[in-house]
Design brief:
Alpha-Beta Plaits; six-stranded antiparallel sheet; Ribosomal Protein S5, domain 2
Length: about 220
């Protein structure tokens, strides 16, 4: 688990790709376009790109949510809370962070009413998430802690086995006067490894523990 109760994993879109979902109700066409957005600037760029792409649409409704908890949505001219908020709620419900979704509506000539709009915008957003999932565009980001530990050559295999048993992913080692194991743990799991290494080797290991960060694991 991440330290101090912090979030230790989340789901996001892969960078540089876009998922599309579509829903049609009484000839109104709703097109949801979902991308990775790690900042307000990223979200603004996606919103501007969709509005340029669908300049002739009646509405381009944006919603985004960031890892740090910031989130925004707009109804873009639709009745209040019938479009932007339902789209944002779908993103929340899917556990997504660092994403931006813009749902474009081409009006079909028939008013759908507040309930119909909520259902349509929600359905389009869910369709985009389903598209992302089906195409492998969603990725789980986990809080990980890199650890670099130097051991004598004679203890290299033992230390490596202990690291793998503790759940570490091992990167190529550095071979110099000693061997430096380059390891990545789920945040928190590195502590048990270092304690076990200390006990097995009879002393505190020569270890550098980096700050936790989010990465695929």
């Amino acid at each position: 688990m991440a330290a101090d109760g912090a979030q230790d994993s989340y789901i996001t879109m892969r960078s540089g790709v876009e998922a599309i979902g579509e829903f049609i109700d009484r000839k109104s066409r709703f097109i949801a376009q979902l991308v990775h957005a790690a900042s307000e600037e990223d979200a603004a760029q996606h919103i501007a790109a969709v509005r340029a792409r669908h300049y002739d649409a009646r509405h381009n409704v944006p919603a985004w949510i960031l890892l740090d908890g910031r989130e925004r949505q707009s109804d873009d001219g639709e009745p209040s809370r019938t479009s932007g908020m339902p789209t944002l709620e779908v993103l929340r419900g899917a556990g997504l962070k660092d994403v931006c979704c813009v749902v474009t509506r081409y009006f079909g000539g028939t008013l759908l009413g507040p309930g119909g709009l909520v259902r349509a915008y929600s359905a389009a957003a869910r369709a985009a998430i389903d598209d992302a999932r089906a195409r492998g565009l969603l990725v789980e980001m986990t809080s990980v802690t890199p650890v670099h530990v130097a051991v004598p050559y004679a203890r290299y295999e033992t230390a490596l086995r202990m690291a793998r048993d503790a759940g570490a992913h091992d990167l190529p080692a550095d071979f110099a006067a000693d061997v430096t194991l380059n390891l990545v743990f789920r945040s928190g799991e590195e502590r048990a490894f270092i304690a076990a290494l200390t006990e097995a080797f009879g002393g505190e290991p020569d270890a550098l523990v980096e700050e936790a960060r989010f990465a695929e694991f």
